[in-house]
Design a protein that fits this description.
Number of domains: 2
CATH superfamily of the largest domain: MetI-like
Number of strands: 2
Helix content: over 70%
Structural class: mainly alpha
Largest sheet: 2 strands, antiparallel
Number of helices: 13
Amino acid sequence: MARMTGRRAVHAVPVLLAVTFGVFAVAAASPFDPVKAYTGTAGLTASQENLDRIRANLGVDQPLVTRWWEWLTAAVQGDLGQSAVMRQPVADVIAERIGWSSLLAVTAFALAIVLGTLLGVLAGRRQGGRLDRMITSAAYTLEAAPPFWLGLLAVWFFALQLGVLPAGGLTDTGSDTVTAGQVAEHLVLPAAVLAVAQLPWFVLYVRQGVGDALAEDPVRGARARGLSERTVLLGHAFRSGMLPVLTLIGSRVPELITGALLVETVFSWPGIAAATVQAATSVDFPLLAALTVLATLAVLVGNLLSDLLYGLADPRVTFDG
């Protein structure tokens, strides 16, 4: 496990280098002017000399490779640069928001895995039955529904029509303090929507895995020995059926990040979504690069975690590859 983790860490270095360079290249080719985004309406009346001075202070007057290399060398030393759009250090921008984004993503992902596994087992134990058809139909329907549409629907129904849950934000309107109760209440809708967006994949994978496991010879032999259906399902089919789900965990991380950004925007959740949108529209090079590296690291860690979990669950798998 340690050797594989080390190899993955070494292989991640060129990936991160290529990703960060790509961010600077795309931003440099963008038609948006970071100086105009930084100055706002004041830039309309500013002299060209002042605009050039601001451009030099922001470092956007330098060649692409120079900007990228200066940011990279500073980032290696722990300095992620200054965010022009947020007007504060990039590290502070991320530190203020990453905790709330992580809370939302982890809660939703855990909920999707638990509910998806439960529903997948219920559907897979008797494939073709009424319950299986109901669950799989709902899963395919939700799979086609974009997260922002689910979010807007949830706000309309639970917040506006029923009035049982807040429509967005982190705390109640007018509240000066952040309490655990308020955060939990405001977390319900965005976490549920993000979980529902991820749910269909786990349902369908578990259903297929359990169905295939129940048709295997060892399971037929267990039934022939007179073991109860509960023992056969949980002791034999469930473990074999869960193996594909472990690889699914890592592959769902990119869409989890994308879905979290959309859900955060719909529910005004104080995560990194707003910072990402502002950084993209304002061509904020340092902030864009740091957020992209963060997302890339999350994907790489998710893939590594899937491989480690799969190897631990299946003794036939080695960590030498």
